[in-house]
Amino acid sequence: MIKRLVQCIGKYKKHTIATPLFMVGEVAMEVMIPMLMATLIDRGIEAGNMRYIWITGGLLLAAAFISLYFGVMGGRMAATAGSGFARNLRHKMYYNIQNFSFSNIDKYSTSSIITRLTTDVTNVQNSFQMIIRMAVRAPMMLLFSVVMALSINAKMSMIFLACLPVLAGGLYLIMTRTHPIFRRVFKTYDKLNNVVQENLRGVRVVKSFVRGDYEVDKFNGISQSIYDDFTKAEKNLALNSPLMMACIYVCTLLISWLGAKMIIASGNNPDIGMTTGQLMTLITYVIQILSSLMMVSFIFVMLTMSRASAQRIVEILDEKTDIETPENAVTEVKDGSVDFENVRFSYAARSEKDCLSDIDLHIPSGATVGILGGTGSGKSTLVQLIPRLYDPTFGSVKVGGVDTRKYDLVALRDSVAMVLQKNELFSGTIKDNLRWGNQEATDEELIEACRLAQADGFIRDFPDGYDTWIEQGGTNVSGGQKQRLCIARALLKKPKILILDDSTSAVDTRTDALIREGFRSYIPETTKIIIAQRVASVMDADVIIVLENGAVADCGTHEELLGRCDIYREVYESQTKGGEENE
Amino acid sequence: MSNVNRKNDAPVRPPMGGPGRGPRAFGPRKPINKKTVIRLLGYLKPYWPRLLLVMGCIIISAVASVSSATFLGRIIDNHITPMLRQAAAGESVSYGGLAVTILQMAGLYVLAICASYFQMRIMAVVSHSVLKGIRNQMFEHMQSLPIRYFDTNTHGAVMSYYTNDTDTLRQMVSQTLPQVVSSAISIVVVFISMLVCSVWLTLLVLLCAFAMMKVTAKIGGKSAGFFVNQQKSLAGLNGYIEEMINGQKVVKVFNHEDEAKEEFDRRNDELCHNATSANKFANILGPVNNNLGHIEYVLLAIVGGAMAIGGVTNLSLTGGLNVLTLGAIASFLTLSRNFMQPINQVAQQINFVAMALAGAERIFGLLDEKPETDEGYVTLVNVREEGENLIETAEKTGIWAWKHLHGDGTLTYKKLEGDVVLEEVDFAYEEGKPVLHDISLYAKPGQKVAFVGATGAGKTTITNLINRFYDIADGKIRYDGININKIRKADLRRSLGVVLQDVNLFTGTVMENIRYGKLDATDEECIAAAKLANAHDFITRLPEGYNTLLTGDGSGLSQGQRQLISIARAAVADPPVMILDEATSSIDTRTEALVQRGMDSLMHGRTVFVIAHRLSTVQNSDVIMVLDHGRIIERGNHEQLIAQKGQYYQLYTGAFELE
Questions:
Q1: Do A249 and B109 lie within an 8 Å CB cutoff?
Q2: pLDDT at B370 over 60
Q3: Which of A95, A444, B110, B294 to pair with B252, CA 20 to 30 A apart?
């Protein structure tokens, strides 16, 4: 895990290494300054020696300025390294997410990804900065101080050395008890985020069903469990500071008592025992030792808190996409033919039931194919295999005569335009959204595509035309308008294969017919695969595929199917004379 | 990928800003806002007894640490030195006095350790209680906000209030506050000790402290500004990620990964820049103040030494005018260090404070959003029928009535029937851009009323008005003869079942999602509703049947299956009026016919509004309204409209003349 994170430091390695080095400088000065101060008092002030005060004062000032320089530089380096590290983490995570296949995406909830990219990264960033500033500083401080203390009085130093295992044991206990709680808390945070997100998105449902109170209860429950866990964890962490204080105080008192005895026994003689001055310095060092230990323990606390976050980040970094461009990939799609050869598919490997079974289909380039089938019959699943959004569990899917798994993904998906059933527009102008299809599209091309998709008319009716601002999710255009914008966006790719997954359900029949008419006359070479509920949307197709429970029930032209396929006939009749039937 | 469930026929709002436009709650950055601080402190009020306790604990700790600073000096001066003299004089040395002093100190230390532990524990509880309170209040308030708020704010940014902003608050409440209090107490104690020693030197220290504060304000102010920016860019990034991850499948289909990365990198770099600057200033604050302390120390030593050597008269608080002794200077120097330290510590906290306050301002921004207004006073109650009279009752009778308290003090009950009347209704989402003109319609209980029309004709808008997601500009809508403005919104909505085209499911099992329509529905009722909606079959085929966990807005289900669940959800509520807004648009017509049969039997004798593009969905309606640009241009049943040979006829035949 740590290795994985260290890799993300990247170009901030310089800063990461420089920070502790500056810290060493600062520590050296900080150890020197108390000594200078002590001599300033002892030999300058107590002796009433003004000259000495000036000299030592000057030295002190110089030390202070050096220390200031090191401190400031260290701080600046640490800031750059920390923020840069966080930036790289987010960058790498996000880039990996962009590589995610559909099944990877299905695995994480949006809210969980957001928490990982923001809160978790911030946690890790804070500890990282802390570590590079303190990880060297604290041990150095410890080392210097221990050496100084030992040099003053080795025997007395044993006292605080005895404290160390107690302290370490205590800290270890605290850490092991709190870590699982923190890990749990972050999961709960995901849940909280999820409820907020669902409520933001589903506000109309919540309001329609008057479920505000219910949602509030749900939220409060989660909020309460966050409260419970956090207080529990922090109550454990609350032991940390008293433990430290106890060690410092016990040492101070013991050293004072034993030191006093020693001083008196030796008659304030440094050669046999110790002096009062030495006692004072010793205590200063003891405090310095223990406060550097305090820093170490603080680092541990930070680590505990961020370990859970780090694990969640690494999970994303390590998530392997299961769909990748192979080596020596084919980069050109020859034509728009599509072949399914004995394809079986299920979303989860362990699931016993296949979503698609024994699909064997051959669609010539330029054909118009209609797909019809009941709810959940596998229509969307079928077409999602064409741009390789998922891989078939068994069998192969070929586009332009080549297995989809052999293609360069970008090349394949550039040739296959798909309008998803659940489509999204993004915040930006209409033009921005359309250009998703083709970054370089000229205004004329945009308008052309919109004409084909029957969107030009309503876009022009907007006061700002093609510059109309679309809200997140396209909430300020109607369902039918959204679908037509999505079709236009797909058309701009000038694809070899165009897949419409129930993309005209909110468009009225006449517009729907016009759209298909446009396809026929303007993009005859493109293979058009149209999933629809309306028979009218597919009846003029070259071939219509009827799906039932994940298998092809029949396929043929409208007339053929009317003659021999019961399902098709039933659907057709329900739509043409459904009215009379129900009357 | 989840879709947003919003008004369908809403008009386009003109662009209000460029990309990266954040939620409105972000105002221009203000310096530390007193009002925010006071409001924030208000949240601590309920915990004052515990905070008082914490205050006590802090005082004990502070006293212990101050007396610890002088402890060694005291034992050396009071015990060791005299004892040494005794020993040198050959007298017997008694350790009793020293032991007592050390034991006294030990007692104080034990107290301080306990105090510190309790302070941490109590603060953990208090700070998280405060946070929980704020979180819950935010969510509760969010529930009361009008639809418009949700239309105009980025979801990711709102989510950031709940996580990033409350997190900074936690830091402030649990760490900064106690730190500031304890430092303040130390400062006061040490200040008095210093005055006791020497007034002149204290003035010098104060001068240095003032310089330190100036520097802190300068550096800290810069750093705080960047920290606020950091939180702002974090919220922006949050919003961007939320939108992109939700549309991730579209991103993939369009090979749009590189563009998505580009914009992400831009925002990420912006955040990195702000974070770097913020932390740079924050990190140098410590060394700068620390070394200012050293400089002050040297100054003090020189001035003090000169004063002592030159014999300048000293002024002390207790001793009046006297001569400054060298010993006094030595202890004054120690004191001055103890004075500067807490000041430095408080200075370090200034960033957290600024960050937390910026977060608090955003949170308060949400809390200050005006909630949906509701002047409704007519409520929906359970009644019992006794002859002609309706008697209000607490038990669940299945018969509902509107409880109407009139202006003249009389109370009437009107049975809930589902009679909806629109009279000359005009509506505009934005002033001057009317969407509906002069809409009048009558829907009697038992009738099925359909709206047909091109997209953008205003069909969904009508239903949005009936359940009062928006309020009409002119005209009247009556429900069972009562103006809907007089009906409490919650009760009005409870009496309407709505199925929207864009389905929103919640994390939970299928059963829980159906039960959302009626929280006290039994499993049997839910299954019956699912059967009615023709969802039963596919649900039983799911891996765990009704107990299958749905996550990510039901991402494992097809659009049609999700619609079936949402119909079952509305069916279980069993409302007198049902609005089906493109509810079956993704369901194949065969299944739709079955669903319709089920719904028709359920809604027998009740009012149904149907919106659909598919004419087969609306053919059997009692009355069909053809809408065009916000006006009803034709009305009648299927046969009448066909006979009229108007727009409906064209739509109907238009679909089939393509053959």
A1: yes
A2: yes
A3: A444
Q: What is the CA radius of gyration of chain B?
A: 37
* Residue B60 Ramachandran class (φ > 0 left, ψ -120 to 50 alpha, else beta): alpha
DSSP classification of residue B161: I
Judged by a CB distance cut-off of 8 A, whether residue A37 touches chain B is yes
**Lookup: tokens for B438:** 């002069």
What are the residue boundaries of the structural domains of chain B, listed by start?
A: 34-366, 379-415, 420-654
Homologous superfamily of the B34-366 domain (CATH): ABC transporter type 1, transmembrane domain (1.20.1560.10)
C-alpha distances (whole Å) from B469 to each of A331, A473, A578, B437 are 51, 19, 33, 18
In chain A, whose CA is at the least distance from the CA of B82? Answer: A264
CATH code for residues A338-582: 3.40.50.300
Name chain B contacts of A571, Cβ cutoff 8 Å. Answer: 588-590
| Nearest CB neighbour to B249, from listed A105, A241, A481 | A105
Helix (H, G, I), strand (E, B) or coil at A191: helix
pLDDT single digits (tens) B36-69: 889 988 998 899 999 899 888 888 888 887 777 7
A366/chain B closest Cα distance in angstroms: 20
Q: Using CB atoms, which residue from A375, A410, A467 is nearest to B15?
A: A467
Which among B253, B257, B585 has CB closest to A387? B253
pLDDT per residue over B141-190, tens digit each? 999 888 888 877 778 788 888 888 888 888 788 778 878 888 888 888 88
Are residues A33 and B6, on separate chains, in Cβ contact within 8 Å? no
Tokens 């007198």 found at: B576
CB contact under 8 A, A468 and B504: no
- B414 class by beta-carbon count within 10 Å (0-12 exposed, 13-18 middle, 19+ buried): middle
B104 touches chain A (CB under 8 A): no
Dihedral sign computed on CA atoms, order A7, A11, A13, A15:
negative
Q: Which pLDDT score, from 0 to 100, does residue B500 have?
A: 82
Bridge-based pairing state of the strands B420-430 and B433-443 = antiparallel
Contact yes or no for A253 and B651 at CB 8 A: no
Q: Do A64 and B326 touch (CB under 8 A)?
A: no
Instruction: Give the whole-angstrom CA distance, residue B369 versus residue B145.
Output: 7
Q: What distance in Å separates the CA atoms of residue A396 and residue A394, rounded to the nearest whole number?
A: 7
∠ Cα B26 B29 B35 (to 5°): 90
Q: What is the ipTM of this complex?
A: 0.80
Q: Which candidate, A162, A158, A157, places its Cα nearest to that of A278? A: A157
B140 contacts chain A (CB < 8 A): yes
10 Å CB burial of residue B407 (0-12, 13-18, 19+) is exposed
Closest residue in A to B266 (Cα) is: A91
Which residue on chain A is closest to B96 by alpha carbon? Answer: A257
Question: What homologous superfamily is domain B420-654 in, according to CATH?
Answer: P-loop containing nucleotide triphosphate hydrolases (3.40.50.300)
pLDDT 10s digits, B527-536? 999 998 888 9
- The CATH code for residues A2-318 is 1.20.1560.10
B68 interfaces chain A, CB cutoff of 8 Å? yes
Residue B520 touches chain A, beta carbons under 8 Å: no
Residue B4 has pLDDT above 50, yes or no: no
Domain ranges of chain A: 2-318, 338-582
Place of tokens 């000229």: A442
Task: List, in sequence order, every residue forming a beta bridge with B385; answer none if it has no partner.
Answer: B390
Residue A354 contacts residue A346 (beta carbons within 8 Å): yes
